[in-house]
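Supplementary Methods, section 5.1.

A reviewer requested that the exact input to the structure prediction be made available. We therefore reproduce it here, unchanged from the version used in the analyses.
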Amino acid sequence: MKKDLKDFVYIFEATAGELAMLVGPLDENLRQIETAFDAKISRRGNNFRIAGAEAPKAFAVLQACAARVHAGEEISVNDVQMAVLSEQTGSSIDDDEAFMLKTRRAGLQPRTPNQKKYLRAIMQTDVVFGVGPAGTGKTYLAVAAAVDAYERDAVERIILTRPAIEAGERLGFLPGDLVQKVDPYLRPLYDALFDLFGFEKTQRLIEKQIIEIAPLAFMRGRTLNNAFVILDEAQNTTPEQMKMFLTRIGFGTRAVITGDATQVDLPKGVKSGLAHACNVLEDVRGISIVRFTTEDVVRHPLVGAIVRAYEKAEKAAEGAAQERREAARLSKDEKYGIEENDA
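The structure derived from this sequence is encoded token-by-token as follows.
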């Protein structure tokens, strides 16, 4: 291996299978690194050349990914993005503070400071709120923590639930019976379980009712003991539904509530139970609230840019609306002021 300031040559000594794992399908992993940094990666076989203003950072990410492949781990585009994020933010998880979760995915651990804070809160408190934009790993890490708790015999059951309201759809207009109506809303939870438990084991545990995935309405009237309970998409609950859910918690149960306060699909004028609960429960002992930002987004790099663009547009629209209200108020005051003077 040789290098100068902005030009690196890296020879990856590995099998053909390990090389394929490192670069990804159609070199997708390399393209992800290029997209994140001002660098160009070219390769011939197992010889890589990294050039550009941010070549050192791209090289560091490539080396980190190569080390994981050499260790026998499988890496995905998601893993590459988390390595990129770690390099961009300069954050890492120290070995003595690492959270190695016991799931089917070897080496699963938090990749940002807020993710680490989130998992620490889940381990140390009974009720945790994870609030923030899409792509920050709120739901996936919560499910991973649930799988870890079950595998370590810390809980007897895993219960995953969501409110069945989303993107303007209402159940009455959807085809099928109740189970068929709500199943699409719960699909992201199934996907996470399949990834972390494996398809066959997940199906087995569902059949044994060790894993339960159900709409929020099914929680009413129950007391949940010795369980790991996750309420996803909590921004679409009402304050009454949120209170109902939180009062289901029994002995030996942990609850994680996740949601994005900017993606509320409730009818106009209906207050979000997530925002309400975060305000009401902020200072209650035994409850943790972890707030994620766009810096924690670990999906495709465009997701972070999209989230930031929408936030900017929403703030601009809110500012314009405030200016219109202020102008209307001044106009009204001026009108009444003139009438009083005329009188």
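The chain is about 45% helix and 15% strand. These observations are discussed further in the main text.
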